[in-house]
Design goal:
Blueprint (H helix, E strand, L loop, with lengths): L1 H24 L5 H17 L11 H24 L6 H5 L11 H20 L15
Helix pairs in contact: 1-2, 1-5, 2-3, 2-5, 3-5
Length: 139
């Protein structure tokens, strides 16, 4: 349960940080939006689960980042295609512009980060510590 909460928090923070940056850069749709959400997925893939320096090889975090890029861009494509006109009424009351949620990266970024972060943290959160076998020499 703790891993799930950790993945949700890490995904939320990573998605919000990249989403706010994209909003201030003026990236709301188009090809750059796919890149933004891909970067969110890649970042979440690296920071969730076992820490990169605790992995057995450096390829594991690299593969999680590459797979996360595809997941983030793919989730954005699905959202934009199937829920492209969806607006959050609660967001309007909090000061968000009256735009579809797919065009507001600081709202959709955390959603994508939470979904992928929860998955990665539960899947790669690490297990029990390996037992260290000590050899005792007899005198």
């Amino acid at each position: 349960m703790l891993r799930l909460v950790t993945g949700i928090v890490k995904g939320l923070l990573a998605g919000a940080a990249v989403g706010v940056g994209a909003w201030y850069l003026g990236i709301k749709s188009g090809v750059l939006a796919y890149v933004v959400y891909g970067v969110i997925g890649a970042l979440v893939g690296v920071i969730c689960g076992k820490a990169p320096w605790k992995q057995e090889t450096l390829w594991t975090p690299a593969l999680k980042a590459m797979f996360g890029f595809g997941i983030g861009a793919g989730l954005y494509a699905l959202w934009a295609h199937f829920m492209g006109g969806f607006e959050m009424p609660v967001a309007h009351s909090l000061g968000a512009p009256a735009m579809p949620m797919a065009q507001i990266p600081y709202l959709l970024g955390p959603v994508i980060g939470i979904v992928y972060g929860a998955f990665v943290e539960v899947d790669d959160g690490g297990g029990k510590k390996p037992e260290v076998k000590s050899e005792k020499k007899e005198a």
